[in-house]
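tokens incoming
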């Protein structure tokens, strides 16, 4: 009785250059998939400008804020957030930096974050100096069909040019505001 030996073909060994190229291709592929999904979800969840938006508001200190006038000269960032929102505790310092830089108007809307006094205490505790509207009942956010916090709207000439959600780095917000200038 004879035994036949089956020769198996060993897997070809990849060179370091081939391994590196394989890694780069995978990173690009997964990066593209992530970017596509992120963009689709952001587009789906972004606030939507109401047909007849209320652009004349009053901040928690009783000062008038006219978004139509603010956005007439340059794009204005509207930031919807809440004191109760854990992600907002990451994004609010970025918004504060943008507001302090004073390159573009920044108006924030604090959603269901308590009384004016509670909101002021929170802003003082975190050293936030941005203009804040207290949306104690969430009516403004509902009017904009907001779904998640944080959410952002960029207004130019009283019209929404962009809407986005989630964590946004400072450079991204500056770029979006700059692009909305044109």
């Amino acid at each position: 009785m004879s035994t036949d030996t089956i020769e198996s073909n060993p897997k070809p060994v990849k060179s370091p250059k081939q391994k590196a190229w394989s890694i780069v291709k995978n990173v690009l592929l997964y990066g593209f998939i992530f970017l596509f999904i992120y963009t689709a979800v952001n587009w789906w969840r972004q606030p939507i400008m109401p047909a007849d938006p209320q652009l004349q508001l009053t901040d928690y200190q009783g000062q008038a804020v006219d978004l139509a006038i603010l956005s007439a000269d340059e794009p204005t960032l509207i930031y919807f957030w809440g004191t109760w929102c854990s992600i907002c505790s990451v994004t609010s310092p970025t918004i504060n930096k943008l507001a302090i830089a004073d390159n573009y108007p920044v108006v924030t809307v604090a959603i269901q974050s308590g009384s004016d006094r509670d909101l002021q205490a929170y802003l003082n505790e975190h050293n936030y100096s941005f203009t804040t509207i207290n949306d104690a009942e969430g009516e403004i956010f509902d009017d904009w069909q907001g779904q998640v916090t944080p959410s952002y709207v960029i207004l130019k000439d009283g019209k929404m040019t962009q809407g986005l959600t989630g964590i946004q780095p400072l450079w991204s917000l500056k770029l979006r505001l700059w692009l909305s200038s044109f």
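note: The mean pLDDT is 88.
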